[in-house]
Amino acid sequence: MIMSNEAYGISISKVDYPLRSTETPKYSRIFNFRGYKESDFYAAFVIQVKAICGEACIALIGSFYADEEHCAVLDGSLLTILMDNEIVRFDLSEALPTSTNG
């Protein structure tokens, strides 16, 4: 799923391989609210966020049955994601690294 507004470009894709795989990008943050283990039956949404102030790659671990198509709403800096029966809200203004001069 791809979406954007005047401040953010968002790409959400579902992966069902281990997050420690050599194919995975470096994640800025990883969220595993249900405590899935590597031996469990799970998937992850990889959320790539681009903005003028920087980029972030977030992994959201959850149910294997979640569908990434039409799973999110972007309202200003708030990104709300439905992952199977979980609803997660990110404030993207806090998720992105800030640049420093000096």
Strand neighbour order, sheet with most strands:
1-2-4-5-3
Q: Tell me the number of helical segments per DSSP (H or I, 4 or more residues long).
A: 1
- Fraction of residues in H or I helices: under 10%
The total strand number stands at: 8
List the helices and strands and how they pair.
Layout: E1 2-4, E2 8-15, E3 29-31, E4 42-51, E5 54-63, E6 72-75, E7 78-83, E8 86-91, H1 92-95
Parallel strand pairs: 3-5
Antiparallel strand pairs: 1-2, 2-4, 4-5, 6-7, 7-8
Describe this structure in words.
The protein has 102 residues and is mostly beta strands. It has one domain. The protein has one helix and eight strands. The strands form two sheets. Strands 1-2-4-5-3 form a five-stranded mixed sheet, with no helix packed on it. Strand 7 (78-83) and strand 8 (86-91) form a beta hairpin. The termini are far apart. 16% of the residues are buried.
